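Please, does this match?
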Amino acid sequence: MFQRLLRRSSAALLLACSFLFADAHIFVYHRFGDPRYPSTNTSLAELEAQFTYFKQHHYTVVSLSTLVQALQNGKEIPSNWVILTIDDGFKSFLNALPLFRKFHYPFTLFLATKPIENRYPDYLSWNDLKKIAQYGQIAFHSHAHPYLVDLSDQEIQNDTKMGLELFAKRLGYTPKYYAYPYGEYDERVKKVIKFFGFTAICNQNIGAISKTSSIFDLDRIALVGKVSLPQMLRFNHLDAVWIEPKSYPKNGILERVHVQIDPIYKHAFVYVTGYGWRKVAVTNGIINQKLHLRVSKKRIRVIIKVKNSKISTKILVRSRYGTE
């Protein structure tokens, strides 16, 4: 009897410790129960299975506001926190809303104002959004949902101003949070968007959230396609200072990865889109690996990974502006 209790106590302790040393995760959805668009769709069966997984594995789904407040106050982020977000404002969210309500899970819906204002048939209406706001938070995802890296500073400002004006006119308040359209941005875009005074800004990237995460660059993992939820939940946040690359290489050659991390690590793994993983040395907390890799895709991802699935990811997007 005593040994059985001891085993149960040990299992509970291991579960608590696994949460203690992990990080929170933000997930992003797009469409629900809409098989016309498989690359951005989540079936209702998949959604319910994911929600059940959170519940059975003792994750706590909290609002984005709860996470942001904890980050603002410099608090430790509980490792079993999960934050759920939805992008674009597609009408198919109404298919999923009953499940969010059934599980009592808060959510943040990032909407693009132009398709809603113009009454595009696949999008929610303003009246829909007013009803949805009873159960979750509505935030901002641009006006026309453009590729921001291909716009000038003035064009980004114009799109943002127009969307914010519509948002305030139709919903009666100014949104606090912003999510980049397509999850794509660079330092120039980030600077322009930050000027509008958003409390927090989200990307779409593989990663996790700790108390040291930037409140203006919050990683969100897309739960679409054949993604493994348990695998995504294993990722932890790696504190990293990206020295190089800063942006998409103008000549199409990614020359090197130069990153500062905790000096306790002696080696790491570097991933580049199209080239897979490679093991690299870490010397006194510095990764300085020559690569000379030709990149051609408009968007590539560079990832640094160390033990315990700690990762830091850099998104590089080709643009007419701001390249190296």
About this structure: Residues 1-21 have pLDDT under 50 and may be disordered. Residues 2-235 form a domain with the TIM Barrel fold (CATH 3.20.20.370). The CA atoms of residues 147 and 270 lie 27 Å apart. The longest strand covers residues 286-294.
